[in-house]
Amino acid sequence: MESALARAYNANPQLNAQRAAVRAVDENVNQALSGYRPKIAASADAGYTVQDLTTPQGSANEKFFPRGVGVQLNQTVFNGFRTGNSVRRADANVLAAREQLRSTEQSVLLDGATAYMDVLRDTAILNLRNNNIDVLDEQLRQTRDRFNVGEVTRTDVAQAEARLAAARSDASSAAGNLKASLSRYRQVIGVEARQLAPAKPIEANLPRTLDAAVALSQSAHPSIQSALHSVDAAALLVKVTEGELAPSLSVQGTVTHRWEYQSSRSELNTASVTGTLSVPIYEGGEVYSRVRQAKETLGQRRIEADQVRDSVRQSVVSAWAALDSTKERITASQAQIQAAEVALNGVREEAKVGQRTTLDVLNAQQELLTARVSLITAQRDRVVASYNLQSALGRLSSNQLRLATQEYKPSVHYEQVRDKWIGLRNPDGR
């Protein structure tokens, strides 16, 4: 199980796509930080001018090529704290994206564990079905022999034939289920399932009580943390929008050099520094409307956070109950198998002396088969339920499972691009 989950952790396309999404969100911080940085632009122009001048003293004709180059620098000094709040909002969105990545990681690992156990369950059930065919085939042969010597009737033979045909149908259905599970395993894990080892439930690190489990989930679940970061981002958006109503101050510096500015053989050098103060008086009500809109969105995010808390709590309670249920089912199925085995042996012995019919033997065999299938299903469900509970707690991760793989750390890419002033290539060289 651990090696399969480690492979899924490294290669699952859904998980890798979410990691790429987080890396894309990281760039929003750099874009917000650009508000602190200067904007520099260079310009150049060239032209051709013909100038005819007529005066009482005579006329003159001049041709020249005016041209020039210049550099302009713009620096925002104050913009109503919009840049600072935009940076903090981008950071909040990054943290929310990381929690969404944790949720995706949990989903992929849970899908991987479920797919693994489904293959084990369906393989065991198919083996039981095939073994049941062998048993019923032998039962049919013995019934026919007894019919030939007059010990049973034609009805007993027909009953055995019907059970054998049903067993073959059940085996065909089990084979189809196994193929579907193998396909799902290939989709989640990324390789074909080969010689899967038995797996155990992960219950060692679970809280001892349901109340402790609920309390842990409320503080650690990534869905809750993501919702809270979204609340922070929405609150900062209100401040960013309100900043548009504040005065703004910027400084512009320009340096130019021109040749043949107004006549041939003339040059002009210009340098200037200009400060601009802009005070918004009325924006047609558009900014005020967006502030009110942002406040409503903030209220929505807070309500959604409460909704996520309730949803996580419900998931924990449900997963806890499911895990307890599987433990009881396993105990009951084991007792059922023991009783069914005793009953089958007794019915067979009684059938040999004519106290039981062939149908009684077939029914006892079916009860034993059903009990064994129930045990296999319950054992699978217990393992999956333990992983599901870990996921509901927000603790299903490569670290908690101690997978033999290198942990993906989204903070590495964040630090690489946060203060990157120039460059078109990503940190990985793309």
From TrEMBL:
Primary location recorded for the protein, binned into one broad class: membrane
Localization in the cell: Cell outer membrane
Domain of life, source organism: Bacteria
GO CC annotations, alphabetized: cell outer membrane; efflux pump complex
UniProt keyword Transmembrane, yes or no: yes
Keywords tagged on the record: Cell outer membrane, Coiled coil, Membrane, Transmembrane, Transmembrane beta strand, Transport
Record's keyword annotation contains Transmembrane: yes
Pfam families on file: OEP
GO molecular function, one term: efflux transmembrane transporter activity
Chain coiled-coil ranges: 323-350
Family affiliation: Belongs to the outer membrane factor (OMF) (TC 1.B.17) family.
Name used for this protein in its record: TolC family outer membrane protein
Organism: Alsobacter sp. KACC 23698
